């Protein structure tokens, strides 16, 4: 009997497993693939994800494997510099290979004690009042108290759960892969310059050792899970460029669409959804992996609280209440970005207008805060603007704030030095007189770094501790 079974060891599943292990939850991750993914897709980790990695002590490991780039040019790839003074200690983009992120997150989860079983596909499940019986493709049955589907866009868990996944189907598929070419680099560069001005989904970029990263629009759309063939690449390259550049010896080949869909519910009883299993959208702006990792950090401590027995009754449902609107907003901004990528005259005129508007710092800042997820404010009720937002990393007497959040516990920052945690001190840490940089008397942070309360009154604090952290221990 496990506490939680997670279907899928992609970035979302691995991050969730680690978050649960911070609270000693018995976690099993079931991954259908026998080997880690080999698709060398370079993805961007945005500011909020970098902050979360810093909050869990993972950022230094990631920085060793990626390249820092300016936090700019994300929205529909409109080339504008980052606004000045972005409110974060980690105001950059980290370009890093997705397999590297997955490896590091899986290592982190297993170091914390999560079990990962590869070559195990979840085929179905039944839930009852006490738990979930999970059935694997080979017929084996496993039992857990909760099941979380982190099994990607074609999620078996979501389908078996019967949760609706409304939205728009893919209108355009794109082929993507790495392969060798048979013509000189200059010839390729000239063609790419000529064509990529009008086609956003076309490029050939040298990847080292004569290998190119190739992206080309596919003819039609396909719901096939199988990768495309080399012949598919050759044909589409000839269609768009008049030559197939002599491509051969592919390392890997893949296809992705631009469907936009959002699960109607993130939780049904003891089964939950996170990451691409809950939401899909085109990759423009580079938000999908970030969104999934952030789902995991929002869900982890709440599910752990439920299992440890101290969760207030409605805590687990705040996962849907908080994260569903965030995904809705991401889906909308990718819809808008996709329109701005259209070569049609109308969208191109809107693109030019938005490009002008982005010269206004507030417009540029709004868009960057949206894409990088530092603009998120959860609805915790009426209160100061900081309530419901994440607190940026700040210097405190003991070092930096995020360094105090590695264990995934709540944190009370008390400048008054008068407040006490009482029976909540087994779940929440206390820091007296943290820093003059904090311009409010006291702040209660949730384990995900969001501000749950601001004030200076003990009774108010106790009410909010109950709201987020349940009944105090005796
Ligand atoms: C071209 C491209 C570029 C992208 N660029 C970016 C970017 O720059 N930034 C960004 O944030 N995002 C980007 N994304 C999106 C990102 O890759 C995904 O959002 C991310 O991989 C989602 O992570 P996940 O863990 O939720 O799902 P997945 O990565 O899909 O992982 C799901 C896992 O579940 C496993 N699985 C599936 N079914 C089962 C089953 N039945 N049982 C057990 N295991 C199962 C799969 O094998 C897989 O390992 C890009 C996507 C594409 C296509």
TrEMBL record:
The family database entries (Pfam families) matched by this protein are listed as: FAD_binding_3, Rng_hyd_C
Per UniProt, what is one GO molecular function of this protein? Answer: monooxygenase activity
Residues covered by the FAD-binding domain: 2-334
Q: What's in the keyword line of the UniProt record?
A: FAD, Flavoprotein, Monooxygenase, Oxidoreductase
Asked whether the UniProt record includes Oxidoreductase among its keywords, one would answer yes
InterPro entries, per this entry? Answer: FAD-bd, RIFMO-like
Q: Which cofactor does it need?
A: FAD
| UniProt cross-references to PANTHER family, sorted A to Z | BINDING MONOOXYGENASE, PUTATIVE (JCVI)-RELATED (PTHR43004:SF19), TRK SYSTEM POTASSIUM UPTAKE PROTEIN (PTHR43004)
Q: What NCBIfam families would the database entry show? A: rif_monoox
Q: What protein name is recorded for this chain?
A: Rifampin monooxygenase
């Amino acid at each position: 009997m496990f506490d939680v079974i997670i279907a899928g060891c992609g970035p979302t599943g691995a991050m969730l497993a680690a978050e649960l292990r911070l609270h000693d939850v018995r976690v099993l991750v079931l991954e259908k693939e026998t080997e880690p993914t080999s698709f060398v897709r370079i993805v961007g980790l945005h500011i909020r994800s970098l902050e979360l990695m810093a909050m869990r002590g993972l950022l230094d490991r990631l920085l060793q494997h990626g390249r820092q780039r300016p936090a700019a040019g994300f929205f529909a790839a409109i080339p504008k510099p980052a606004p000045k003074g972005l409110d974060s200690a980690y105001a950059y983009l980290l370009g890093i290979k997705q397999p590297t992120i997955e490896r590091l997150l899986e290592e982190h989860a297993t170091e914390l004690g999560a079990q990962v079983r590869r070559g195990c596909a979840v085929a179905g499940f039944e839930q009852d009042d006490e738990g979930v019986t999970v059935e694997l493709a080979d017929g084996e049955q496993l039992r857990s108290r909760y099941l979380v589907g982190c099994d990607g866009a074609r999620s078996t868990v979501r389908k078996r759960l019967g949760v609706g996944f409304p939205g728009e189907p893919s209108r355009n598929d794109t082929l993507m892969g790495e392969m060798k070419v048979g013509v000189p680099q200059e010839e390729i560069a000239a063609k790419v310059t000529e064509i990529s001005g009008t086609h956003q989904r076309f490029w050939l970029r040298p990847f080292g050792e004569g290998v190119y990263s190739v992206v080309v629009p596919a003819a039609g759309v396909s719901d096939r899970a199988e990768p495309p063939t080399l012949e598919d690449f050759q044909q589409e390259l000839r269609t768009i460029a008049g030559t197939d550049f002599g491509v051969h010896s592919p390392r890997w080949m893949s296809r992705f669409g631009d469907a936009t869909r959002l699960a109607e519910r993130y939780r049904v009883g003891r089964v939950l959804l996170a990451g691409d299993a809950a939401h899909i959208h085109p990759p423009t702006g580079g938000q999908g992996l970030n969104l999934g990792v952030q789902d995991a950090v929002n869900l982890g401590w709440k599910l752990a609280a439920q299992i440890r027995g101290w969760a207030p009754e409605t805590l687990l449902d705040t996962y849907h209440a908080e994260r569903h609107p965030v995904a809705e907003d991401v889906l909308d901004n990718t819809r808008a970005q996709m329109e701005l990528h259209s070569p049609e005259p109308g969208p191109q005129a809107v693109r030019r207008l938005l490009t002008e508007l982005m010269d206004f710092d507030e417009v540029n800042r709004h868009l960057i805060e949206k894409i990088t997820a530092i603009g998120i404010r959860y609805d915790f009720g009426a209160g100061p603007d900081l309530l419901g937002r994440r607190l940026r990393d700040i210097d405190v007497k003991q070092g930096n704030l995020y360094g105090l959040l590695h264990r995934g516990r709540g944190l009370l920052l008390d400048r008054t030095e008068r407040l006490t945690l009482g029976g909540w001190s087994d779940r929440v840490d206390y820091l007296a007189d943290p820093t003059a940089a904090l311009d409010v008397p006291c702040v209660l942070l949730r384990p995900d770094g969001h501000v749950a309360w601001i004030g200076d009154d003990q009774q108010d604090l106790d009410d909010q501790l109950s709201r987020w952290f349940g009944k105090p221990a005796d």
